[in-house]
Amino acid sequence: MSSAPPPVQVSNPTGDLAPATAADLDERLALSLRLIDAVYDRDDRLVQHLVLEEHAECWVQDAQGWTALHAAAHTGSVDHIKLLLRKGNAVWSIPDNLGCTAGDIAFSMNNTDAYEELLAEGIRSEMLRAVLEAAHSSSGESDAASDAADDADMTALDASRPDVEAGASAASDSTTAAGAVAQLSTASDNATFLASRLTFTHDSRGQPIALDAEGNGVMMGWESGIMHQTARRMCEPAWGDRRDKSWAELHSEEEGDREKLRVMNVGFGLGIIDTYLQEYHPTQHLVIEPHPDVLAFARENGWYDKPGVRFYEGTWKDYLKALEAGDEEYVGWDGVYFDTYSEHYADLHAFFQTLPDLLSTSPNARFSFFHGLGATSRLLYDVYTSVSEMHLREIGLATDWSEVDVAGEGVGRWEATGASSAGAPGAGAAGARDKRTEGEGEKKYWREEMVGRYRLPLCRLEF
Ligand SMILES: C[S@@+](CC[C@H](N)C(=O)[O-])C[C@H]1O[C@@H](n2cnc3c(N)ncnc32)[C@H](O)[C@@H]1O
């Protein structure tokens, strides 16, 4: 990288650069590019000078999207990483043109210490963000976790999602407080998604898929392996023997001493996890689902007629309000699963906080959620694995992780269906799914070369 790269990308994340003239701006950019080169060349003195005395902008990206932090991750210099983060204004989560954060570069170069430093920075800053968001929402609002989520700002995760980009054909406009017009996407704005139409179809391999109005995959058949494992981990061994019995048989046994099984699933999609949960013939099976097209799909496929199954037709936030108002009963669920779409990590975090009220006190009660958080980047996936585990621990839940080989089944890819394409990593929303079609050919959803295997969380209340 010693030859000076051509045009730079100016994407000041803080918005605080206000040069007086274009010449000033050119000079600042040249300084920043020199810094990237100096870091890459391991020129300690020049790096120190540019950061500490010239105050070079550490967030500026070169032609391949690299920042000085990417260069430091490549050389593996922990000292440079610390300097850029602590004394410069480096941002740990900026992706390059291939979607790689500095941490991903360090990981791919096997620079373990550099990776650990960037991971620690990511965890620290995302934990701090959550605290600030909570303080912000509690200063102006009275109420529950659900309200906290309503205000959530974009996280590093969201900022790195391809599907958060504006410009999709079906996106709608919204005017921000600053007067700028922001595009709302079905993949990143829950209200926009809920107001849009869905298509239920099959791809050319026969996999069932649900697509939103922008052509993003809301749910796809290849995720069956994850859903199967999740239902199994949630229900076994405590309820394993229920699989051999019918619902009616179990129901009559439950009038005696037999323990009941009550499960709640937030987000029906294609009903894949619900199908697996049904293998255990739950006594009660509540599905929380707001989208009218999904509800129609469930009705057409006989879900409303299954014994013990009930739909709450609204969002999980509506459901919590109904609980508080006394319109829904506190049941004590033995299994709770959360997998929504076009929400953000702050929403999932807000849902976590309701779990002590939702879960039963049975030692067998389990919670799980779809963990696609940051699944386009090794660093983001590691950061959000840790952050979600810490947030769960804060409210008294211990998490065990197991792995599911998504790519090994040969189903981690799906063909475009010809639906309109739009310009993600996904928790984008909390769902964190990068499931869009790309016109022609195939698009990998699970980038196993980046993040490895799917991590399946299984959480229980610690008493
Ligand atoms: C990824 S799909 C769930 C797939 C499901 N796990 C399965 O196995 O088929 C996401 C679902 O969450 C629903 N959803 C979106 N926003 C929601 C919200 N705020 N509350 C509850 N469900 C929501 C969507 O309509 C969609 O049906």
TrEMBL record:
Q: Which UniProt keywords apply?
A: ANK repeat, Methyltransferase, S-adenosyl-L-methionine, Transferase
Domain (RMT2): residue spans on this chain = 184-463
Chain segments carrying region Disordered? 416-441
GO-annotated molecular function: protein arginine N5-methyltransferase activity
Q: Does the keyword Transferase apply?
A: yes
Protein origin, superkingdom? Eukaryota
One GO term (biological process): methylation
What PROSITE patterns does the annotation carry?
ANK_REP_REGION, ANK_REPEAT, SAM_RMT2
Q: Does the keyword Glycosyltransferase apply?
A: no
Where does each ANK repeat begin and end? 64-88
The cellular component terms of Gene Ontology attached to this UniProt record, alphabetical and capped at eight, are: cytoplasm; nucleus
Compositional bias of kind Basic and acidic residues: 432-441
SMART domains, from UniProt?
ANK (SM00248)
Descriptive protein name = RMT2 domain-containing protein
Q: What is the source species?
A: Rhodotorula graminis (strain WP1)
